Amino acid sequence: MTITVPADDISLLSIEEMRKAAGISTNASDAELMDMEADNAATITTACNIAPGAGYPPTLRREMVTETIYQVYGDRLILSRRHDITIYSVVEDGETLADTAYMVDPESARLTRLRDDDPVGWSAKKLVVVYDAGFEVVPGDLKKAASDFLRSSWMESRRDPLVKSERIKVDDVEETERQFWVGPVPGQSNSDTVPDFVMQKLTRFRNYVV
Question: Which residue range is the domain that position 152 belongs to?
Answer without folding.
Answer: 2-58+136-204
